[in-house]
Inverse folding.
């Protein structure tokens, strides 16, 4: 194997793949990155057996071949090299990395023992704009449960419908749902692990204006764009039927400016009880006013008034302020609608300019 | 273990020798035989990575291992992504048949040869075989509600009551009910002693992570006889964390004990307060009608026909423990089946006559009774019989007199004499007072119930 490649290309590729090459005590080769040099170019591959990432790196292949070395090590090393051409050779079972002024030999393992990344047939293909996917995913993903023992909600639900993709995530205290217009005639309901999507977002962040192709079957999902292929298992299970908890009607509907709402919440929140994060929201329809106050205090009490537009009854509800702030920071709108029924049923927050995004928060019962 | 499992175990045994340990544990974890017909074997694998790897790298090794285990040739091995819990109908069939085969045996000869499934549940404990009476109405209703909506209504549900009154039956019914409705729920039935042993074992082996995983990943945790963790601090702490983890995730927890939470000694307050968090229900002694109903149901489940007057006689004579009731019934059935006669009231009387001269009961003396009471309340025998009128001595003294009257049918003058040469009016007063206290004071009621069991042990 003999490859010549620019430092920039090599470094970028390694940066994308090396993140999931984790310390795996059972199978040490999973710490490694597979360098696969074929006629068309170099492919870097890593996997943790749940996710597999392949990145194509533009380079000149003098002799094809393949080999694996520690991914983190190679990544750190290459990032420190000067911006010039790098020559990579396989010499007597070791990887030789040469630049003008530096020669390095890295010990590695045979490519033969490296896991194979399962192929996925291209039958179910969906095209989607990378920018839209990235924005929509980040609007949903933060609500997903971080509890790895609850695999079906430590994930995001992907529902493919005619010309629509619905993303939903919940940790059972709040729920985010984003509908996204796409060209599609497939139907599917998949649960994609949180870890996969965090990885996807990380990689998508490095690219701009890409068209992402999504391929899937009942066990696997693959995201492909611009020489990157991310393959992941999907969770075998049933996503909670969340539709039933979103109320159809609300007795109080209010419009609030985000720029006034967020600082008011943050300042009052300083005085709420740690760990409970409870803040009371009182909506006064005659004064058109929202009163935000500490619901239970330990450090002191604080009250803030925010002018709002209200349709409907006066109402009173207690929320965990962190959940509200999480939602508000993903609205990407100057103005939001807060819709509530009473202090026992969930409240809904929506950007006024986007009816396709819903963020539902369970109240804290007093 | 069914055949598939055994065959796969054997094949894995061969494969383990051929493949490095790292590869073996990585690629063969959670694999199993999902289906087998003629020359085809379907191996279930946890994910697509494993599928490709086994297909590309180990197919010939796996095929030859299976061929040698099954002593067949030209086997075709197919790999399929599948999880073990919900493999195809084909693979669960043998298990079902196994249970069906054993169940009639259980019914016909009345032996309690128990069929325990993998969750520790005995499938014969169901709600429809639980006889509801005034003594257990509340507990049954709460258990049934919890079974219908696990984790939503009463969490935790704490059920307490004396020996042989149906606590285990009730909490296992919850497990069986949930399992029947949703076979994928993970249910764990365990008694607190097993919990302790598991915990100790885990510490010894340094496998506390696995222990935590086992207990914290269940959907429904049923813990029997929680009182046995009293005095075991580490176990209590671990249970406390397990409890919190489950409760936080709205997993149903049901606990049984022979006494209410507050009366369990040497148990941490934070645990007690958690036990009292959800719903507490007691099961008390069944009344006559309930006992009759229980006997009828038991007789019916054993396919044995008993006359009404015989059932009434048995129910009237055995009052306090359902296990004893069932024991009596078993004796009657066994006796008459051996002699091949029909039971009559007279024959039953003579059999149960043996019961009333039960050596246990006959062995009870006032001295022994006083000894048990003294140990139970942790006081000295001389103080119990002495003249001091401190409150902590007076109550045990009165309870002793009450129990002597109730259990030994002793006369008041005799009781007075045995308890420190007191007047018979003192004994009368004690009995009246405890009788009254039983109605209003739960602690005394419970102490008396426990003592009633203890004096016959």
């Amino acid at each position: 194997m003999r490859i010549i490649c620019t430092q920039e290309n090599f470094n970028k590729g390694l940066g994308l793949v090396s993140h999931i090459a984790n310390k795996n005590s059972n199978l040490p080769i999973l710490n490694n990155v597979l360098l696969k040099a074929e006629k068309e170019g170099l492919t870097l591959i890593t996997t943790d057996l749940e996710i597999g990432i392949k990145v194509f790196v533009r380079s000149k292949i003098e002799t094809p071949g393949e080999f694996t070395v520690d991914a983190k090590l190679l990544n750190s090393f290459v990032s420190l090299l000067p911006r010039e051409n790098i020559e990579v050779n396989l010499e007597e079972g070791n990887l030789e990395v040469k630049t003008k002024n530096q020669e390095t030999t890295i010990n590695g393992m045979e490519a033969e023992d490296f896991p194979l990344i399962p192929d996925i047939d291209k039958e179910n293909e969906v095209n989607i704009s990378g920018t839209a996917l990235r924005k929509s995913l980040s609007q949903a993903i933060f609500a997903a449960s971080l509890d790895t023992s609850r695999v079906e909600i430590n994930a995001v639900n992907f529902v493919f419908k005619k010309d629509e993709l619905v993303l939903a995530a919940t940790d059972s205290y709040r729920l985010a749902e984003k509908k996204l217009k796409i060209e599609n005639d497939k139907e599917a309901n998949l649960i994609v692990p949180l870890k996969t999507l965090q990885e996807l977002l990380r990689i998508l962040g490095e690219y701009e204006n890409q068209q992402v192709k999504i391929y899937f079957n009942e066990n696997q999902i693959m995201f492909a764009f611009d020489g990157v292929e991310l393959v992941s298992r999907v969770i075998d299970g049933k996503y909670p039927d969340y539709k039933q908890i979103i109320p159809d009607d609300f007795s109080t509907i209010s419009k609030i400016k985000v720029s006034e709402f967020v600082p008011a919440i943050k300042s009052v929140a300083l005085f709420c009880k740690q760990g409970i994060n409870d803040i009371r929201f009182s909506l006064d329809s005659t004064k058109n006013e929202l009163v935000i106050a500490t619901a239970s205090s330990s450090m002191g009490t604080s009250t803030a008034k925010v002018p709002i537009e209200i349709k409907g009854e006066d109402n009173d509800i207690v929320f965990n302020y962190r959940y509200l702030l999480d939602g508000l920071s993903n609205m990407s709108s100057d103005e939001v609608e807060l819709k509530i029924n009473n202090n026992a049923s969930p409240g809904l927050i929506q950007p006024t300019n986007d009816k396709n995004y819903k963020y539902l928060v369970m109240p804290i019962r007093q | 273990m069914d055949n598939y499992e055994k065959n796969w175990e054997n094949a894995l045994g061969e494969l383990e020798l051929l493949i490095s340990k790292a590869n073996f544990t990585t690629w063969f974890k959670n694999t199993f035989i999902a289906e087998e017909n003629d020359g085809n074997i379907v191996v279930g694998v946890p994910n697509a990575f494993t599928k490709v790897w086994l297909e590309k790298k180990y197919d010939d090794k796996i095929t030859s291992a299976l061929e040698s285990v099954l002593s067949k040739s030209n086997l075709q091995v197919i790999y399929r992504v599948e999880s073990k819990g919900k493999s195809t109908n084909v693979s669960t069939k043998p298990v079902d048949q196994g249970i069906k085969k054993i169940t009639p045996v259980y019914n016909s000869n009345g032996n309690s040869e128990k069929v325990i499934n993998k969750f520790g549940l005995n499938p014969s404990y169901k709600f429809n075989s639980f006889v509801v009476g005034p003594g257990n109405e509340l507990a049954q209703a709460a258990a049934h509600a919890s079974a219908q909506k696990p984790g939503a209504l009463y969490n935790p549900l704490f059920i307490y009551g004396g020996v042989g009154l149906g606590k285990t039956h009730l909490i296992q019914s919850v497990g069986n009910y949930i399992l029947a409705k949703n076979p994928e729920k993970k249910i764990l039935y365990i008694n607190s002693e097993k919990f302790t042993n598991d915990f100790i074992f885990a510490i010894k082996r340094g496998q506390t992570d696995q222990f935590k995983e086992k207990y914290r990943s269940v959907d429904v945790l049923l813990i029997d006889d929680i009182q046995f963790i009293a005095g075991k601090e580490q176990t209590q702490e671990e249970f406390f964390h397990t409890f919190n983890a489950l409760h936080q995730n709205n997993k149903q927890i049901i606990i049984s004990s022979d006494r209410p939470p507050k009366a369990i000694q040497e148990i941490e307050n934070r645990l007690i307060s958690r036990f009292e968090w959800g719903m507490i229900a007691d099961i008390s002694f069944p009344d006559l009608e309930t006992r009759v109903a229980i006997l009828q149901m038991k007789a019916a489940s054993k396919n044995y026909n008993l006359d009404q007057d015989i059932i009434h006689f048995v129910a009237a004579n055995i009052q306090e423990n359902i296990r004893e009731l069932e024991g009596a019934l078993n004796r009657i059935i066994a006796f008459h089946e051996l002699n091949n006669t029909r039971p009559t009231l007279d024959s039953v009387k003579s059999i149960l006559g043996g019961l009333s001269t039960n050596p246990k009961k006959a062995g009870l003396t006032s001295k022994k009774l006083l000894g048990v009471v003294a140990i139970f309340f942790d006081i000295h025998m001389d103080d119990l019989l002495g003249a001091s009128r401190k409150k902590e001595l007076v109550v045990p003294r009165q309870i002793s007199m009450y129990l002597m009257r109730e259990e030994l049918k002793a006369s008041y003058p005799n009781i007075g004499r045995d308890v420190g040469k007191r007047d018979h009016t003192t004994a009368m007063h004690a009995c009246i007072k405890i009788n009254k206290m039983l109605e209003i004071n739960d602690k005394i009621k419970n102490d008396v119930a426990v003592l009633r069991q203890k004096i016959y042990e």
User: Anything to note?
Assistant: Chain A touches chain B at residues 26-28, 47, 49-50, 52, 113, 115-120, 147, 149-150, 172, 219-220, 233, 236 (CB under 8 Å). Residues 130-141 of chain A form the longest helix (12 residues). The radius of gyration of chain A is 25 Å. Helices of chain A lie at 7-17, 71-80, 130-141, 194-204, 258-269, 321-328.
